[in-house]
Amino acid sequence: MTLAADRVSRAADGRLILDGVGICPPPGAVTGLLGPNGSGKSTLLRVLCGVLAPASGVVTLDGRPLADLRRRDVARRVAVVEQQADTLVELTVADVVRLGRTPHRRAWAPLSGADERAVHDALERTGLADRADRTWHTLSGGERQRAQIARALAQEPRELLLDEPTNHLDLQHQHDLLHLVRELGVTSVVALHDLNLAAMYCDHVVVLRQGRVVVAGTPGEVLTEALIADVYGVRAAVTDPDADGRPHIRVLGTLTRERAAPAR
Ligand SMILES: Nc1ncnc2c1ncn2[C@@H]1O[C@H](COP(=O)(O)OP(=O)(O)OP(=O)(O)O)[C@@H](O)[C@H]1O
């Protein structure tokens, strides 16, 4: 058992932005959180890690309500990489990654050998070892993103929540990152916009629309032409070239545009 949400709701400005959401990410697997802009992906990730409390419903970690657990115990288990994670202080890459060890250390205790190994390993795995001493403001957007992911890895989480982690990353680093997440074998929930990346790397996908789960299942079950038209308003050709349940999606056009200007 791991992290799960049961009938979770949350409102903002008098409007429900999560409306009875239930998700049960398979342990040790990668779950993709999909859905259009504003569908509630980031809010759900923040509720799953306890940063936001649900107005109703419950999030559990190993069957225990998150609200009953100590913040520090949750932080030892669950690592989060938010969108546009930034730091204002003048830290080096290694300093940022060391922050990932905070939940494992006593206040003011120096870094142990195990802490340093975890930091070193995280820098290696994200390809940042040669930039460990660089200051944050000298990094490119993609390097900053990778440094935040390295921080999350240094935390040695059993649950990993990533909000659009491939933003800012070039093609190679997008694939390297999602490959790495798969290889970690921790329970991961990853908000993604790219359906082909979701199909390639996720074991399970959950599609949100206006704060509700539309459908959940394997990429092959969920990512159909009908679903993509319905949820995204996009006409797509979906094929499964390797017949492995990992579909390939080719966008043919947007339905709003086609309706506005029908083909003559
Ligand atoms: N603090 C807030 N106050 C008011 N509205 C909010 C607040 N936080 C989120 N919302 C609204 O809730 C909805 C869901 O937002 P959320 O960021 O969770 O969506 P998302 O699926 O992650 O979107 P995107 O793909 O654009 O990142 C949006 O309409 C957003 O404007």
Automatic annotation (TrEMBL):
Signal peptide: none
Coiled-coil ranges (or none): none
Organism in which the protein naturally occurs: Streptomyces roseolilacinus
Domain ABC transporter: 3-235
Stored Pfam families: ABC_tran
UniProt entry keywords in alphabetical sequence: ATP-binding, Nucleotide-binding, Transport
Name by which UniProt lists this protein: ABC transporter ATP-binding protein
PROSITE patterns: ABC_TRANSPORTER_1, ABC_TRANSPORTER_2
Molecular-function annotations in GO: ATP binding; ATP hydrolysis activity
Record-linked InterPro entries: AAA+_ATPase, ABC_transporter-like_ATP-bd, ABC_transporter-like_CS, P-loop_NTPase
